[in-house]
Specification:
Elements (H helix, E strand, L loop, with lengths): L1 E2 L3 E13 L2 E10 L13 H5 L14 E8 L5 E14 L1 H4 L5 H6 L8 E12 L4 H17 L5 H10 L1 E2 L6 E4 L6 E5 L12 H9 L1 H12 L3 E6 L2 H14 L8 E3 L16 E6 L12 E5 L4 E3 L13 H13 L20 H20 L6 E5 L5 E4 L1 H8 L5 H8 L1 H10 L3 E2 L3 H16 L3 H19 L8 E2 L21 H17 L10 E2 L6 H8 L6 H16 L3 H14 L3 H13 L6 E3 L1 H16 L9 H9 L2 E5 L3 E4 L13 H20 L3 H4 L17 H11 L5 H30 L52 H19 L4 H29 L21 E10 L19 E8 L2 E8 L9 E6 L3 E7 L12 E6 L3 E7 L5 H15 L8 H4 L4 H9 L6 H4 L3 H7 L14 H5 L1 H9 L24 H9 L1 H9 L16 E4 L15 E4 L4 H8 L9 E5 L6 E5 L26 H15 L2 H5 L18 H19 L29 H8 L12 H5 L6 E6 L14 E6 L4 H15 L12 H8 ...
Parallel strand pairs: 10-12, 10-13, 11-12, 20-21, 33-36, 34-35, 34-36
Antiparallel strand pairs: 1-7, 2-3, 2-6, 4-5, 5-6, 8-9, 9-18, 13-14, 15-16, 17-19, 21-22, 23-24, 23-29, 24-25, 25-26, 27-28, 28-29, 30-31, 32-33, 37-38, 37-43, 38-39, 39-40, 41-42, 42-43
Length: about 1900
């Protein structure tokens, strides 16, 4: 029983102590005047009666009532019910008489009312929270006062203070205060459940679901919460509601529902709180930075930025929200129903309140289910001491990551919960019942809100009953002031009460209580049930790893092998075991298995067994968090002190010395949990009668004991029940036994901790790395077992302590740590102080003893023989390549490519262990995979040192059993990446030396330091370098060039006659010019100092002939662009000439010596024109279209001085030249000369009648022209247009890629596109002038220029050139794009982010975008040239994008460049001679290091690769050829791609020596020679599908969707490294085929199956294509038979010819496609062929391997040839074949003789020929109508051997002469006669 009210107080306004504006309250009277003993009077009461301050008021306010809560020093809460009313007082201001000065200041003219009202409060102080009862009592007292009832006030108050009611138990009391009133007080049934009235429902209405949940989480995770409202009662209710929903946790921080304004500084306290403040003080709360403010009136919750509230874990949060909304708003669910049920009303507020509380109860049951299984009971007597094992709880609930639960469990509220609800023997309540019996139901129903709702309603019912046990009885009869009448106010002040009479009442009641018998309501104590154990919960949630059974099997087998000493087997399983140990189940399994092998706490192993066991332990611990939530470390703790090995001298080393490097050992919480669980075990054993169960084998650490056995909690409960029945002695004995148990455990743990905290080598003064047990240098612990290196434990936040370890003395810091631990656990488990002191004395001795034993162990362990490591493999080197640094043992760590790590299936080839070698040429890693299943494979990764683009040191988290000195990341632009970790055995300074050497080799001082120069240098060469004169003439440089010249005569396209020396002598004019100039080649690399001085005399003709010999010249001659003729007078009819103006490289240093310029331009002009262009690179011709005679020119962009005069004509579009300086005039002349050179221009009838310019220059008709024009327009728009791509139309023509217009034209000059597109363009001035007509013509010359440079230029309407501005990309863009491409194709880390997939990275690199733009411009240029307009490409400096475009244009337009020889010529001419800066762009020397690597040439090769993919039958070379060039152009193995121009090459004497006689046949200085030599041996560079069509112009698709990622970027061959250094890959270079052949034979009998790993094997080698395989077999057979082997090319050609003659293939288009079975390709080509006729460029569908030029194979455009149509639709059988048979026919120029099947057809009057007899497709037709004569012929070059001369005959047609050859003379005669007879018949 307890008092209803402890004190009654009257508080009034203190008139005497008014300080300024603020008044004060004072306690007028209090009853009783003496404090109760059990309940002192609360201080500061007067502040809480008027929280906003005591003030007088001019108006009377209505009475108010609210309840404040005060908390006393013992954290008892006192409820203060305040009833305030207002009494009239005289205005004190007026009483004073004269106002003071201060008052005058404030309000001199404000009239002060005579009467003011002062507040007066009646306060009840109680420990019970019965708000309504208090309201009624105080109202009654007020009524008695106001209405002046007859009852004496003292009696009422006396009765009130003596009223006694029970605390709880569900009873009801009727009370009366003796003023004719009656009230019924109901007490709750169970005191532990909070009483909430309607406050919870009210809070949800005010703030809403999400906000209240937010506050709930904030309160539980200990944040500061402030409520604001203008109503005091609402503040109290809100705070009460928040506490009610936190049940069963109790809030234990500052709790002030109503805070007086005077105490506002309390809000800046650092501790959490729940406080309510009147919104009157809102402004004062604004600057609080870390307080969550809930505004009850506005319904908002404001969370500051710096505060993060952990939310409830999902899906619980969602379920909770759903259920609460079902309670508050049941209509929400059916709001959308078409037939809503009759209105669903939410429950009444009272019931709703309980339903919401039920939801939170349900939520807590969810969160805390199974908590009792994680309680450790550490003492039972004298009273239970209980700990909660947080880590185990989180681990078993699989919630370790959950922030919310972690914080709740760490919080004070939960600590209180454990101490209150932990004891196993106590009274239970609703929550205990939920946890014990309803968990199963809660789990099953969670997903179904309706079932949950049903459960909630049941719980709500309980809660409601608890608060209102007798809902029917609720009678109150209390007199109040008559409310309907005007409320009456007290006329008189509240009377002064008589203390004595009140005190009498109180004394009387106290005496009565003493004599009354005590009311003993026995508390029902019982054993608290624990509910279902946690283990089941997890299993049902399926949180166990999939296929774990197999993994556990592996772990068990491995351990069995180790203990059976089957070490080889164990070694094989080891990697799998280490992988399996990532899973929890396997780790648990490991601890259980190891347990079985421990006998009497000891297990002695041999060294290797010990090694393996320690490795497994380390691996297991490595993945444990420092909390050890799964109890793995706990289970291993007894094992690490059990497993040991014998060292020499009778010393034993235990496993603990090798597993110290884990964070878990430094975590104080781990040790505490371990200690408590062990104590619990022992105490349990203490009270179990039978001792056998006492040492039961299964460890009962988590308290999850077997179901039959008593758990420790149950046992404790039983003991607690018996405790009162025991005698004093027995009680004492039990306390002592428990005490000594805890004490002995403490000693045991002090030992254990010193084992795991003291490092093996204590002399080193170091502790665990980064633990904070002393931040001393960390030293590897690897020599402990010689193989186990510690984990690179990352630094982690130590909850452990040791932060105060200032001294570097290990022993001291360990002692301090153990002391802190002992203090903590002994206090918690109630150990006496004497024992504690004894422990503190023992600990230093324990540590010291341990250190001494460790010294001996350390000494002996160093003597163990080192563990054997795999031996290092040496790589094979190229001839001339030498080691710079010998192999250093490293580990190749896996990077972001998944194939090698086994992530995509297949064995993990990486990580691998081996050595890194640095040679003069390459960086090579060679080793074996660490995974023993693939241990016999060899892994090789290498790249040329010259291709290194990035080298940096990185740090990585590596597995436990490895320790690396440092890890380097090396990236190469050959798309290779090495991540190497240096082994411990490598001295750390060696790694630094390695890096320095690498840098030296990567960036030599001068280009002569590169491998191409230093390789295999003979002494002579070195000497030569030394003896070089400073001023040596070109003559001496080229001594050996005479021989060279002779060697090259063999080239078929060079006819020697034209280059004979007399040329130069006869041209005296030229000679004299040459004598004037002097040329010198200086030694210094500094370019600026180079001058050309020493003379070149007539005797130096050889040199010049060498210049002529260069690629450019050969090509100019092939194109008919000019020759160096013998006659003095040049043939004027040739439009172009070869100029020697630059022969001394004076005009332009980066151009070749000989250039093609218009015939009419003298050399002097050239010098002047060149100044207008950047780097002096003026426009020169580099290719001419043989059909349209249009030319392609290249130059650099114009100088930025502004676009030169001819682009900027002044205002009037005059026909005359612009008034600019002379250079601009000469420039115009130059362009005019180029235009004049075009036949189309000379045919047009003069300059002003351009109407003549139709299609006369082309052999095509008008219609074709019209067809073509819009297409170019579209292309042009696309190239010039803005970035946004608007899909346009597709059109096909030639071999034509798609065009999608890119929308708008450039803003620069709309007319360009219009004119090209054949549209009219509006004239600016609106007048229809003739220019308007001219605009529609096509320009003769298009200048492709950079948009940014051509700004503001105006077109001259009469000039015949036109500028096409395009946006080109910067070299910097290429550089950054390439970096990103490398990262995408060869990532350094495996990427887990979903938005960083390969394709996303590829897209972000924009590499494909750049390719698209280059191809797009190139296709435009091809189209313009094909239409007969010349094009000048004039971009940037003329050596990057220009070179790409010009080369691609030639490749697309001219089939010759698509052969192996032609491509070489193209690269030599456009890239090497025209000065692409290979050294600079490749950053090949120290000087260019800063500029970085920019792969312009690689980009070009990629474009070629894209075209190759689209037209696979047009190229003689294979894809491998392109990759080969891509690799070697950066490898610096050959000199070809070194230096920036011909000038530099001549200077170094490299240009002509390539052809010089080689002393060492192994060393090829030119990549081309190497390719030639290799091509003779193997068909690797040859494309078997090569079957070109005549003069085919290719127009590839250039859209990104049509481009493919080049596999050169992504493929790798780990078995042999890159395959581009042929000698290394194929063994000896002589007979690469043989070896592979032999190997196949040896492996054949074993198994026919081959396993091919995509990133390991070289596919082309393991699975060669059919033809390569057959050619190889032929060669092998020849060698076996002892025949001389034939070259593969001859064999191939033979087969082709034979195949053609007697082909059995009926339906195949061509031989090659049948061989390769690629019918789909031929089909594709075929379809392309058919389109040609629609586009108006007639070309028959030629799909042969080699096509001859026949009379009608290119009929006039626009008219499909009859033969084509016939051959398409008619079969050969039905034809009239008058005569047929095989004839050899001579091909076109440079083509060999071929056998063909000829058919003479009289009906159609034709001579047709086919590849073979069965062929349906006609290869060509000779119309007999055009034949002039048939005559006997003579054999020419290349004719079939061993055939009678008379077998040859010639057939002359109007177009050309055909040479034929029959089998013999008789056949020849027959053919001649038959043809003759046909002719005469006609």
């Amino acid at each position: 029983m307890t008092r209803l009210a402890d004190y009654f107080v009257v508080v009034g306004y203190d008139l005497d102590k008014r300080g300024g504006s603020e008044g004060q309250g004072q306690i007028l009277q209090r009853f009783p005047e003496k404090d109760w003993e059990d309940n002192p009077f609360p201080q500061g009461l007067e502040l809480f009666c008027q929280p906003s301050g005591w003030q007088l008021d001019p108006e009377r306010k209505p009475p108010s009532f609210f309840v404040s809560v005060l908390t006393d020093i013992n954290s008892e809460r006192h409820y203060c019910a305040c009833f305030t009313f207002w009494e009239c007082v005289e205005n004190p201001q007026l009483q004073k008489g004269e106002p003071s000065e201060a008052d005058e200041d404030e309000s001199p003219d404000v009239l002060q009312p005579a009467q003011m009202y002062a507040p007066k409060s009646l306060v009840l102080v109680s420990r019970l929270d019965h708000t309504e009862v208090f309201r009624n009592c105080l109202s009654l007292i007020y009524t008695v006062h106001v209405d002046g009832l007859t009852v004496p006030m003292e009696t009422v108050i006396g009765n009130l203070l003596t009223c006694v009611i029970p605390l709880a138990g569900g009873s009801q009391r009727t009370i009366t205060l003796g003023a004719g009133d009656r009230q019924v007080i109901q007490t709750p049934i169970n005191d532990s459940l909070p009483v909430s009235g309607c406050s919870v429902a009210q809070l949800f209405r005010q703030l809403g679901i999400v906000n209240v949940l937010c506050l709930f989480c904030a309160a539980l995770t200990e944040h500061k919460i402030l409520f604001l409202s203008s109503s005091y009662q609402r503040l109290t209710d809100a705070c009460r509601a928040l506490l009610a929903i936190m049940f069963p946790l109790k809030y234990s921080f500052t709790y002030v529902p109503i805070l007086p304004g005077k105490l506002l500084e309390v809000l800046s306290t650092p501790t959490p709180f729940i406080i309510g403040v009147n919104s009157h003080f809102r402004s004062e709360t604004q600057e609080l930075l870390d307080v969550i403010i809930a505004d009850l009136d506005g319904g908002t919750v404001t969370i500051p930025e710096c505060v993060h509230i952990s939310p409830l874990p999902e899906p619980l949060l969602h379920h909770t929200q759903t259920v609460i909304s079902m309670v508050l708003d049941p209509e929400l669910e059916v709001a959308d129903h078409a037939f809503p049920p009759p209105s669903i009303q939410p429950s009444t507020l009272k019931i709703q309140d309980k339903e919401i509380r039920a939801v939170f109860l349900w939520l807590f049951a969810h969160l805390l289910q199974g908590y009792r299984w994680c309680l450790h009971i550490i003492r039972i007597h004298p009273e239970p001491a209980i700990c909660f094992h947080k880590a185990a709880f989180l681990g078993q609930r699989a919630l370790t990551e959950d922030d919310f639960l972690m914080k709740v469990l760490d919080g004070m509220a939960f600590a209180g919960f454990v101490s209150e609800r932990g004891p196993p023997y106590r009274a239970t309540d609703l929550f205990d019942d939920l946890i014990a019996n309803q968990v199963e139901r809660i789990r099953q129903e969670t997903g179904d809100p309706h079932k949950v709702m049903k459960h909630i309603k049941e719980l709500a019912d309980h809660l409601f009953k608890n608060e209102n046990p007798y809902p029917a009885v609720s009678m109150h009869r209390v007199q109040r002031t008559a409310e309907h009448a005007k409320p009456r106010f007290p006329q008189t002040p509240f009377p002064h009460l008589d203390e004595v009479s009140v005190q009498l009442f109180i004394d009387h009641a106290t005496a009565k209580l003493k004599t009354a018998p005590p009311v003993v309501k026995a508390e029902l104590k019982s054993m608290v049930p624990s509910g279902p154990p946690l283990a089941d919960i997890v299993d049902r949630n399926g949180n166990v790893l999939a296929n774990s059974a197999r993994r556990l099997e592996v772990v068990r087998n491995c351990i069995t092998y180790i203990f059976d000493n089957k070490m080889l087997e164990a070694k094989k399983l080891m990697p799998a075991v280490l992988r399996a140990l990532k899973g929890r189940a396997a780790r648990v399994c490991l601890t259980q298995e190891l347990n079985l092998h421990v006998l009497q706490n000891r297990a002695v192993l041999d060294t290797q067994q010990f090694d393996y066991i320690v490795r497994m332990m380390n691996c297991t611990l490595q993945d444990c968090s420092h909390m050890d939530e799964h109890g793995i470390a706990a289970a291993l703790l007894p094992l690490v002190t059990a497993f040991c090995r014998k060292l020499g001298g009778g010393i034993t080393q235990f496993a603990y010395s090798c597993v110290q490097e884990h964070m878990v050992w430094t975590n104080m919480q781990f040790w505490e949990a371990m200690f408590f669980s062990d104590v619990q075990k022992h105490i349990r054993a203490l009270y179990l009668e039978n001792d056998e169960e006492g040492d039961a084998s299964s460890p009962d650490g988590e308290g999850v004991g077997g179901q039959k056995r008593l758990s420790a909690l149950e046992l404790a409960s039983e003991q607690s029940r018996l405790w009162p029945t025991l005698s004093k002695e027995q009680q004492q004995e039990r306390v002592q036994k428990e005490e000594s148990t805890v004490f002995s455990q403490a000693i045991h743990y002090a030992n254990r901790m010193s084992y795991l905290l003291l490092p093996l080598d204590t002399s080193k003064n170091r502790l665990l790395r980064n633990t904070g047990l002393g931040d001393l240098e960390s030293v590897s612990n690897s020599y402990v077992t010689n193989s186990i290196a510690g984990s690179m434990a990352e630094s982690y936040d130590t909850e452990s302590g040791f932060e105060d370890a200032e001294t570097s003395d290990v022993a001291n810091s360990v002692i301090r740590f153990i002391n802190r631990f002992v203090d903590k656990v002994c206090n918690e488990s109630g150990v006496t102080n004497e024992h504690l002191k004894a422990l503190h004395i023992m600990i230093p001795d324990i540590v010291q003893m341990h250190i001494e034993t460790l010294e001996a162990v350390h000494r002996e362990s160093k003597r163990l023989p080192p563990i054997q490591k795999p031996k290092l493999l040496r790589p094979t080197l190229l001839p001339g390549e030498e080691f710079v640094m010998d192999g250093m043992r490293v580990h190749l760590i896996a990077d972001g490519r998944e194939e090698a790590t086994g992530a995509m299936g297949g064995p993990p080839l990486l990580p691998a262990e081996g050595a890194i070698y640095l040679t003069t040429y390459r960086l090579i890693f060679k080793g074996t995979p660490t995974d023993p299943n693939v241990g016999e494979q060899v892994v090789t990764r290498s790249f040329p040192i010259a291709s290194l683009t990035k080298e940096k040191q990185i740090s990585l988290k590596v597995p436990m059993d490895q320790f690396f000195q440092e890890i380097l990341l090396l990236r190469s632009c050959t798309f290779q990446l090495m991540k190497i970790g240096f082994d411990e055995e490598v001295a750390s300074d060696l790694a630094e030396v390695f890096r320095k050497h690498m840098h030296k080799l990567r960036y030599p001082q001068h280009v002569q330091g590169t491998f191409a120069f230093t390789m295999g240098q003979s002494a002579k060469l070195v000497v030569e370098h030394k003896t070089k004169d400073k001023n040596q003439s070109l003559k001496t440089l080229s001594k050996n060039l005479v021989k060279t010249a002779k060697r090259t005569i063999g080239r078929q396209y060079v006819t020697r006659k034209k280059y004979s020396p007399p040329t130069w002598e006869n041209r005296s004019s030229l000679q004299s010019e040459m004598d004037e100039d002097e040329i010198s080649v200086s030694e210094e690399p500094d370019q600026s100092s180079l001058t050309l001085s020493s003379t070149i005399r007539s005797s130096d003709r050889q040199t010049m002939s060498n210049v002529v010999e260069r690629a450019c010249c050969r090509d100019y001659q092939r194109l008919g662009l000019g020759t160096l003729s013998n006659s003095l007078t040049r043939s004027k009819n040739e439009p172009f000439r070869i100029s020697t103006a630059n022969r001394m490289y004076t005009v332009c240093r980066s151009y070749p010596g000989l250039l093609i310029v218009p015939q009419s331009i003298p050399d002097v002009t050239i010098q002047r024109i060149s100044r207008c262009y950047r780097q002096n690179r003026f426009p020169v011709v580099c290719w001419r279209n043989s059909r349209t005679k249009a030319v392609l020119l290249r130059s650099a962009g114009l100088h930025a001085k502004g676009v030169v005069g001819f682009f900027k004509s002044p205002n009037a579009p005059t026909a005359g030249p612009s008034q600019a300086d002379s250079t601009s005039l000469e420039q115009e002349k130059y362009l005019q000369a180029i235009i004049s050179s075009m036949p189309s221009y000379s045919e047009a009838s003069g300059r002003n009648t351009l109407s003549g310019f139709t299609s006369s220059q082309m052999s095509s008709s008008d219609s074709s022209d019209k067809l073509r024009q819009p297409k170019i327009g579209a292309l042009m728009k696309q190239v010039m247009g803005t970035k946004e791509e608007v899909p346009g139309t597709f059109s096909r023509g030639g071999k034509w890629g798609s065009i999608r217009g890119s929308g708008r034209l450039s803003t620069y000059d709309p007319d360009v596109g219009n004119r090209l597109a054949g549209k009219e363009s509006p004239q600016a001035n609106g007048g229809p002038s003739e220019t308007y007509f001219l605009r529609q013509q096509r320009a003769y010359l298009y200048i492709i220029g950079d948009k940014s440079q051509l700004k503001g230029g105006k077109q001259d309407s009469f000039q015949q050139w036109e500028v096409v501005p395009i946006e080109v990309f910067d070299v910097r863009q290429v550089k950054t794009s390439f970096k990103k491409l490398m990262k995408a194709c060869v990532p350094s880390m495996s990427n887990t982010e979903p938005n960083m997939t390969f394709h996303r990275c590829l897209e972000e690199s924009e590499w494909m975008n750049l390719l698209h733009r280059v191809l797009q411009v190139s296709v435009l240029v091809v189209e313009l040239l094909d239409n007969g307009s010349s094009v000048m490409v004039s971009l940037e400096d003329g050596w990057d994008v220009t070179t790409q475009v010009v080369s691609l244009v030639q490749l697309l337009s001219d089939p010759y460049y698509r052969t192996i020889d032609g491509f070489r010529l193209l690269v030599e001419k456009e890239w090497l001679s025209f000065g692409h800066r290979f050294s600079h762009r490749g950053a090949q020397t120290l000087a260019s290091q800063s500029s970085g690597f920019t792969p312009v040439f690689l980009q070009f090769l990629d474009c070629v690769h894209q075209i190759h993919l689209q037209f696979p039958m047009e190229f003689e070379f294979s894809q491998y050829y392109l990759k080969f060039l891509a690799y070697h152009y950066v490898s610096n193995r050959f000199r070809t791609f070194l230096l920036d121009s011909d000038y530099e090459r001549i200077e170094l004497g490299v240009l002509y020596e390539e052809k010089g006689e080689r002393k060492n046949p192994q060393v090829c200085k030119s990549v081309w020679d190497y390719i030639d030599r290799l091509n003779k041996k193997t068909p690797i560079f040859y494309n078997y599908m090569f079957s070109p069509e005549d003069d085919e112009v290719l127009k590839p698709y250039s859209f990104i969707s049509n481009l493919k990622v080049w596999d050169f970027y992504t493929e790798e061959t780990l078995s042999e490294g890159p395959s581009f250094d042929w000698e290394l890959v194929r063994g000896r270079p002589e007979k690469p085929q043989e070896e592979t052949g032999d190997r196949q034979e040896t492996t054949a009998p074993k198994s026919q199956r081959r396993i091919v790993w995509p990133c390991y094997d070289s596919l082309s080698k393991v699975l060669p294509d059919a033809i390569t395989k057959l050619l190889q077999d032929v060669q092998n057979l020849e060698t076996e038979l002892g025949q001389p082997t034939e070259k593969w090319k001859d064999t191939w050609d033979k087969i082709k010819t034979a195949q053609r003659v007697e082909s059995k293939l009926e339906s195949r288009h061509s031989f090659s496609s049948s061989l390769l079975m690629s019918s789909n390709l031929s089909h594709q080509r075929c379809s392309q062929g058919v389109y040609l006729q629609q586009s108006g460029v007639g070309s028959s569908i030629n799909l042969a391997l080699d096509c001859e030029v026949s009379a009608t194979s290119t009929p006039a455009a626009g008219r499909p040839s009859t033969s084509t149509l016939y051959s398409q639709f008619q079969s050969t059988e039905s034809e009239n074949r008058s005569f047929e048979g095989v004839l050899y026919k001579r091909g076109a120029l440079l083509k060999p003789w071929k056998p063909r099947w000829f058919v003479l057809d009289k009906t159609k009057h034709q001579l047709r020929y086919y590849d073979a007899r069965q062929d349906k497709d006609c290869k060509g037709v000779i119309e007999l109508a055009e034949v002039e004569s048939v005559i006997p012929g003579t054999p020419t070059m290349g004719a079939p051997k061993n055939i009678d001369e008379k077998a040859f005959f010639d057939l002359k047609t109007t177009k050309r002469v055909y040479n034929f050859c029959a089998q013999d003379s008789t056949h020849a005669q027959l053919w001649m006669d038959s043809i003759q007879s046909c002719l005469s018949d006609a």
